[in-house]
Write a structure and sequence with these properties.
The complex is a heterodimer. Chain A is built from no helices and eleven strands. By secondary structure, chain A is an all-beta fold. In chain A, strands 2, 4, 5, 9, 10 and 11 form a six-stranded mixed beta sheet that branches. The model of chain A has no long low-confidence stretch (mean pLDDT 92). Chain B is mainly beta. Chain B is built from no helices and eleven strands. The chains are: A mainly beta, B mainly beta. Chains A and B meet through strand 4, strand 5, strand 9 and strand 10 of A and strand 5 and strand 10 of B.
Chain lengths: 112, 115
């Protein structure tokens, strides 16, 4: 079974602080996606990374794909209360083209 | 609003019963995916249909089945329900058939409670 491990599981910070969330696997990803989910709603795609070492920026969010394509990180700069939510990474493993495997998620709470 | 609709939003039923969850994909999307999200298991892929045909199967129990109709809406049937089946069930849709290459748009989910 191919697993994605996310850390930390829970994160509570003050508005204005920076944070990093990690997504790791022992297997190689063909591609990896990050989603954000708010209570009562489905996950919403933030970014897809495909190339090892790739870095993508979305306003205050920076996504990095590891060189070996086995890990990824999401860094948020100057967090805002609106960033509160469940952050999920989802990977498509090499040889498993047709399904996404989701991590267990990081529940982020940004306090005013 | 993702454009994916799911009904019902909430469902409460008893053990041993059978329920049907319904999903309408975004206009133009050919793929429908079903996921189960529970507190202890996270978001688990169940099954995918593409243009009416089963495309991929994940951790779907034999008590569960799904189908996609000619108008591309999909139904997930859950039978002989157990307490452990209580969860959020999400439907997602995408244009193409490759899960990792196409953005999936998730519906708002159906919360199933089995008593």
């Amino acid at each position: 079974t191919q697993l994605l491990e996310q850390s930390p599981q829970f994160l509570s910070i003050q508005e204005g602080e920076n944070l990093t969330v990690y997504c790791n696997s022992s297997s190689v990803f063909s591609s990896l996606q990050w989603y954000r989910q708010e209570p009562g709603e489905g996950p919403v795609l933030l970014v897809t990374v495909v190339t090892g070492g790739e870095v993508k920026k979305l306003k205050r969010l920076t996504f990095q794909f590891g060189d070996a394509r086995k890990d990824s990180s999401l860094h948020i700069t100057a967090a805002q209360t609106g960033d509160t939510g469940l952050y999920l990474c989802a990977g498509r493993f090499s040889g498993s083209a047709r399904q996404l495997t989701f991590g267990s998620g990081t529940q982020l709470t940004v306090l005013p | 609003d993702s454009g994916v609709t799911q009904t019902p939003k909430h469902l409460i039923t008893a053990t041993g019963q059978r329920v049907t969850l319904r999903c309408s994909p975004r206009s133009g999307d050919l793929s429908v995916y079903w996921y189960q999200q529970s507190l202890d298991q996270g978001l688990q892929f169940l099954i995918q249909y593409y243009n009416g045909e089963e495309r991929a199967k994940g951790n779907i129990l034999e008590r569960f089945s799904a189908q996609q109709f000619p108008d591309l809406h999909s139904e997930l049937n859950l039978s002989s329900l157990e307490l452990g089946d209580s969860a959020l069930y999400f439907c997602a849709s995408s244009v193409g058939g490759q899960a990792g290459n196409n953005e999936q748009f998730f519906g708002p989910g159906t919360r199933l409670t089995v008593l």
